[in-house]
Design brief:
The complex is a heterodimer. By secondary structure, chain A is α+β, with helices and mostly antiparallel strands. Helix content of chain A is 20%, strand content 39%. Chain A contains 13 helices and 38 strands. By secondary structure, chain B is an alpha+beta fold. In chain B, a hairpin with a 5-residue loop joins strand 34 and strand 35 (598-609). The chains are: A alpha+beta, B alpha+beta.
């Protein structure tokens, strides 16, 4: 709040001045923002959309100025401007204005720009490039300036503009100037979208200027396991609904989902599908081996998961158009589109008619097709099949997700399902209920001296089961011992596995699995005088995972809903009886809860500890209550069972 | 005994030529022009151990060929890589189905073939039309890239390529990596007026030299190389089997010996002060005052200022090593930083030695192996002060040598008739003390104790923490301190903290520790057990490294530096309770050297005085290196501290 007040005062100051430059010293900024190392003084983009001889021309000019407030900030002297094959960069210039020791600013231009190919995580080959450079002489109080222009070659790919970022931003503005025959649409997203000022200004010759301004918007925080930045950063996504050419033709771009789907259909229609005879032969072999239709679908899906490796080539329209099925089949690699199209082709060859491609945005994209019918809404493609009155989503990019489960990162998202060239449907991918994603450990142990000797059976289902598949994928068999010792560790890190049967886990992609193992934990119990104390909560992973929650302010995101249960059977040591058994406890809320029970049963004590999360996103206004829940739970599991020697 | 691998299909895994007839290699033709990747000589069988690997490299072959043209002294070179791997798991496939060929922009691939053979024997050849270019990627350079087609788990992936190669002064070739290698082969062919030295390290077979006709030929062959294990407390990267190839003679010019290395680098300390004189003088005048500061105080001041003012960047542009331009642009590379400090020392009239050495975690310097490969890191030694100044490690200030350079030899670059070396000293364990004074207070209630913990980090650890703290963004400093204070103890809350000695304005980090005084709420250390309480006292020292898993050790033990830990823990027994379990505290272990010196020790004991309990734990490692034979004793010491971390006492109601 203090920061906002300071910033507000600051805005008043600025409005009275012509510019941000040396009129306001860096010391003033530093006093206003003592926690910050550098600030964005201003950032802006101006986009011009013109119709020129029946073609739409789009030019975007951007600038950004930053000020360096302390010595630590001067390390951030690297700059870069990114672009791709749908853009042409022009007029790139950058410079540093630095204090010369007499209180005056001097300017030094950047003379050396390097062109680099950018390798993006998850993409083997793409068309992203950057112009990289170093700002010279970034010293305390210096101001860096960056200006560049881009020609946007495809009217569907107008860039979003972000009004704020993880740095404090004093002033940001975005303008679009359109010709009279361009119908513009736009949507604002993120926190503080309501605080963006918008004006329309008519210009000569029927042009229109649209202006959006953000003043001193607060910076965006980053926390682990929160929603993607696109949910928080205030940003605008412009799009062209349609334009009218000089000939009078209306060219529709993104006025509705119909427009978007029409474009997608044309792209899919251009798939280069060559001779599929070997693929057909293969599919008929799979068909012969399958007992029924459902098994056949599962077999085809699993085959694609297992045998088509994810290698993505995303240059140009390669990022939008799937490769032909026979090519992907022969190469044994592809990206999400390639796998989806291959699945569709194979299932159709197997005789299934109602198989579709589905475009979908993962959970990191906060957009709906209805509000934003543009390619930015989605970033993924899967297949979907109508079978037995169900729509089954088939995402082969996840090699470890079992048949019948959608990938966790598309739960709850809209899928744009292509029924035919002209027909589509938007459906929501279901969210998998917590009861399908379980980890249940049933443990039996005895106490010998101060050691626990035990047997455990672990049951995993749904995404919990898929997780271990995924973990094992990245581990070579000679490291399985270390992995399972760590993964199954309980009680203390002196835990060691005596024997284990992992055969139940090793059959991949099943909806559930079990493994059993015997273990020993030396020096776990405390034997003092005539008593033995033992902490029955061998698995504190849940509580430990939230120890850093105290500082949390943002929403908390889970990959999936889950239910975990530990049932521990403790044999009462011979010659001993129960001296202290804690009271059972529980608490349940809408989105989460726990229960902890202690029971005596003949010669054993049974402790059952269950926790569940029934949410994918815990809103930030619920985080405080969740912290209390963790504090209560942390206290609840701090009780120790005591046995005492029987006295005759 | 080897076992044939039980596979769903049977095929022989064939290895390319172990030793191709020598007359072929010594012909006037480039080898790559007649290279036949299908040539077969030896059958390789996979073992049971191999079946538990993610992948097994069947052949890793490199051929480097150089030709000179005496008339115009032109030198051309090519490199051929032939690689064949059997894929066992998804991880193995993921790591081998994408190929990156380093190549300069504008150069062409001379040869490229690739294929996969699936478990059914189906061969899929790579289509060269799918070869892509990526240029100037970060600091890695440019590549031709492609994906292997048709590969699944159980496949064999094979490719070979030939690209142009520039002649360099030195090459480093690794034979060992994370996968086993059945056959490693390296071949160096050069015309007679181009000679190389080669050195093998860590058990790699020596090369075979031949001089015949117009060519020199050196071949290295090694079979069945096991994978290197990433083991804690080891320099496993430096322990990989590898070889160094250094240019010895080109035409009549001799490049051999350390004198060449000295010649190459002495430019850094030549022409001192001539070009940059004005700029640096002005810089020094701004930040120092000789009237009130001693020479060493001026140097300390300048080192602080320079390392804050200048940004260290990668790159070879002249601007980054020219002192005048560095002072204007504030960007410098490693060589530029050496020059700046050499000029500063010259102006202050402080004698120094410029040392060239290597990071012992990557390469262990050897005076017997003159090579630029071991002259990658630079240090300035000041004999008058017996202190080191690292020009390019901004974490360090004058005094200690960075730990990864210490305990290592170095070449003295200064001009002299003879090769001179300097042993970079490692400081003693007492200078790397980590001390914690911990008081646990139950005054507020037995189930809500408060802990005061004062940690003092001397030497290397203190230096590195000081740097991390000073350079953390302001908004992250609190997180850093909290993390240090909590030190891995679960469920505790930081109440307040104070940092001392966190600024870089003093000499001798060894005797001035980085200090963190923290107060924490530690009710998570108490478990209720009816009327009694379990006090998990061991957790107060924070989480500890442990080596509980029984695995066969393959690397010797190498520590970052000799180190000593001391923990002093006190608490008053809560009124109305007695304490049980203190006898479990007592523990004592030692490592004794061959000359009967105690080089490692763990000891823990307690005292009780009325209701006050004090526990003292001490752990030290007096030297940075222990032999593999000492591993079980070393492990015992490491695990002793980890065992203490699990110690519990019981407060029993009286």
């Amino acid at each position: 709040m203090k920061k906002i007040l300071f910033a507000g005062l600051f805005v008043l100051l600025l409005n009275a001045q012509a510019s941000y430059s040396q009129d306001i010293s860096y010391v003033t900024y530093r006093n206003l923002f003592p926690e910050e190392d550098l600030l964005i003084l201003s950032k802006s983009s101006i986009v011009e959309i013109k119709i020129n001889k029946n073609v739409v021309e789009i030019k975007e000019e951007s600038s950004e100025r930053k000020i360096y407030l302390n010595e630590e900030a001067t390390r951030f002297n690297a700059g870069n401007v990114g672009y791709n094959s749908f853009e042409t960069l022009f007029e790139l210039e950058a410079n540093t204005r630095y204090l010369d020791g007499t209180g005056n600013y001097k300017r030094k231009k950047v003379s050396d720009f390097e062109t680099k190919d950018v390798v993006v995580n998850g993409i083997f080959y793409g068309d992203n490039k950057s112009k990289s450079f170093l700002f010279p002489n970034t010293s305390v109080g210096s101001i860096t300036e960056l200006n560049y222009g881009k020609i946007i070659k495809n009217p569907r790919f107008l860039n979003p503009f972000y009004f704020n970022s993880t740095l404090e931003t004093m002033d940001s503005s975005y303008e679009i100037i359109t010709d009279k025959d361009v119908k513009l649409g736009f949507k604002l997203f993120g926190d503080n979208a309501d605080n963006i000022e918008y004006e329309i200004e008519p210009l000569k010759r029927g042009k229109t200027r649209h202006i959006w301004k953000g003043n001193s918007l607060p910076k965006v925080e980053i926390e682990a396991n929160s929603l993607s930045q696109a949910h928080y950063r205030t940003h605008i996504i412009p799009y062209i609904e349609y334009y009218i050419t000089n000939k009078g033709d209306t060219v529709r771009i993104a006025g509705s989902v119909d427009d978007l789907y029409n474009w997608y259909s044309v792209l899919i229609d251009n798939i280069n599908d060559s001779d599929n005879s070997s693929l057909e032969q293969f599919v008929s072999e799979l068909k012969e081996q399958s007992l029924n239709d459902e098994e056949l679908i599962r077999t085809i899906y699993t085959w694609v998961q297992q045998n088509i490796n994810y290698i993505a080539f995303e240059d140009g329209y390669g990022g939008f158009i799937p490769r032909g099925s026979s090519l992907v089949f022969d190469r044994k690699y592809g990206d999400c589109k390639d796998m989806a199209y291959l699945l569709k082709t194979m299932l159709q060859m197997a005789g299934f008619e109602n198989v579709h491609l589905a475009w979908i945005g993962t959970r990191e994209r906060p957009y709906s097709y209805y509000e934003l019918p543009t390619p930015i809404t989605d970033n993924h493609m899967i297949a979907a099949i109508d079978f037995s009155d169900n729509l089954i989503y088939l995402d082969a990019t996840n090699s470890h997700t079992p048949y019948g489960l959608p990938s966790s990162f598309i739960q709850g998202k809209e899928a744009l399902i292509g029924k035919s060239f002209d027909d589509y449907e938007i459906l929501n991918v279901p969210v998998v209920e917590k009861e399908r994603n379980q980890r249940i450990d049933t443990t039996y142990f005895t106490i010998e001296g101060d050691s626990l000797i035990g047997l455990n059976k672990r049951y995993l289902s749904g995404y919990r089961r898929a997780d271990i598949d995924y973990a094992l994928k990245n581990i070579s068999p000679n490291k399985y011992d270390d992995f399972f010792n760590s993964y199954l560790s309980k009680g203390s890190n002196k835990f060691s596995i005596v024997s284990i049967d992992i055969s139940g886990i090793m059959e991949k992609r099943t909806m559930d699995a079990e493994l059993t193992y015997s273990f020993i934990i030396p020096n776990y119990a405390t034997a003092i005088r005539n008593k033995i104390y033992v902490d029955p909560i061998l698995n504190e992973d849940y509580v430990n995972a939230f120890q850093s929650f105290n500082e949390r302010t943002l929403d908390y995101v889970e990959d999936y809903k889950f239910l975990d249960r530990d049932v521990v059977h403790i044999t009462i040591p011979p010659g001993y009886e129960i001296d202290y058994l804690p009271k059972s406890k529980q608490s349940e809320y809408d989105d989460y809860g726990y229960s902890l029970s202690y029971q005596e049963n003949e010669n054993e004590v049974i402790v059952t500890f269950e926790v569940y999360h029934d949410f994918l996103v815990l809103d930030s206004d619920k985080v405080a209550a969740f912290k209390d829940h963790i504090a209560i739970l942390t206290d609840a599991i701090k009780e120790t069972i005591a046995f005492k020697r029987v006295t005759n | 005994m080897f076992h044939k691998l039980q596979l769903a299909f049977s095929f022989l895994i064939l290895c390319s030529t172990v030793l191709v007839a020598q007359e072929n290699y010594l012909s006037d033709e480039y080898i790559y022009k007649s290279y036949d990747w299908n040539a077969v000589e030896q059958e390789v069988e996979l073992t049971k151990t191999d079946s538990s690997e993610a992948a097994v490299i069947l052949l890793d072959r490199t051929i480097k060929e150089f030709r000179t043209k005496r008339f115009n002294q032109d030198i051309s070179g090519v490199i051929t890589r032939h690689f064949k791997v059997w894929i066992n798991t998804e991880e193995g496939l993921e790591n081998h189905n994408k190929v990156f060929i380093p190549i300069k922009d504008g150069q062409a691939i001379l040869e490229l073939k690739a294929r996969s053979i699936d478990p059914n024997g189906v061969v899929t050849d790579f289509d060269r039309r799918n070869l892509k270019d990526i240029s100037n990627v970060q600091e890695y350079g440019s590549f031709k890239i492609f994906a292997i087609e048709g590969a699944v788990t159980g496949s064999i992936i094979e490719y070979y390529y030939t690209v142009p190669l520039d002649l360099q002064y030195t090459y480093k070739e690794y034979a060992q990596g994370e996968y086993p290698v059945k056959h490693f082969s390296f071949l160096l062919k050069s015309t007679r007026d181009l000679h190389f030295h080669t050195y093998v390290n860590n058990g790699l077979n020596e090369g075979v030299y031949q001089e015949e006709g117009n060519f020199n030929l050196i071949t290295f062959e090694h079979q069945n190389i096991p994978p290197i294990k990433e083991e804690p407390y080891s320099t496993y990267r430096a322990n990989r089997m590898n070889m160094d190839i250094t240019l010895k003679k080109l035409f009549q010019t001799d490049f051999s010996g350390w004198s060449f290395v000295r010649e190459r680098y002495k430019f850094m300390i030549e022409n001192i002060g001539i070009r940059s004189s004005g700029g640096l003088k002005e810089y020094m005048t701004t930040y120092t005052n000789p009237r009130y500061q001693t020479t060493i105080e001026q140097l300390i001041q300048l080192e602080n200022v320079i390392k804050k003012d200048i940004n260290l960047v990668d790159g070879r542009a002249d601007d980054l090593s020219d002192v005048r331009i560095i002072l204007k642009n504030k960007n410098a590379n490693q060589l530029g930083m050496v020059r700046i400090f050499a000029e500063v020392l010259d102006k202050l009239k402080i004698d120094y030695e410029l040392l060239a050495t290597s990071n012992r975690y990557q390469n262990s310097f050897s005076a017997l192996k003159p090579s630029l490969a071991y002259a990658t890191d630079f240090l300035l030694y000041l004999p008058e002060y017996d202190a080191y100044l690292s020009p390019s490690d901004f974490r360090y200030r004058i005094g200690m040598a960075p730990y990864y350079l210490a305990n290592n030899d170095a070449l003295i670059i200064q001009d002299s008739k003879y090769d001179q070396f300097h042993f970079i000293k490692m400081n003693e364990m007492d200078n790397n003390l980590i001390e914690s004074t911990i008081t646990v207070d139950f005054e507020g209630g037995i189930d809500s104790p408060v802990m005061n913990k004062k940690n003092s980090w001397f030497g290397h650890r203190g230096t590195l923490l000081r740097y991390s703290y000073a350079n953390a963004p302001n908004e992250n400093k609190e997180d850093l301190i909290e993390s240090l204070a909590i030190s891995g103890i679960q469920g505790v809350d930081l109440i307040n903290s104070e940092v001392q000695n966190h600024k870089y304005n003093f000499f001798d980090a060894e005797s001035t520790p980085f200090v963190l005084d923290a107060k924490l709420e530690v009710s998570s250390l108490i478990n209720k057990a009816g009327r009694d309480y379990i006090f998990n006292i061991g957790e107060v020292i924070g989480s500890q490294t442990e080596l509980y898993q029984e695995t066969e050790r393959t690397n010797a033990i190498d520590l970052d530096y000799p180190i000593k830990y001391k923990h002093h823990i006190t608490f008053r027994i809560p009124d109305g309770y007695i304490v049980e379990g203190l006898e479990e505290v007592i523990e004592y272990h030692q490592i004794i050297d061959q000359d009967s010196t105690v080089v490692g020790e763990y000891s823990a004991d307690y005292e009780m005085n009325e209701n006050m309990v004090s526990i003292n734990v001490s752990e030290y490692y007096a030297k940075p290196h222990f032999s593999i034979e000492d591993y079980s004793k070393f492990r015992t010491l490491i695990n002793s501290a980890a065992d203490f971390n699990k110690l519990s006492l019981v407060f029993i109601k009286e």
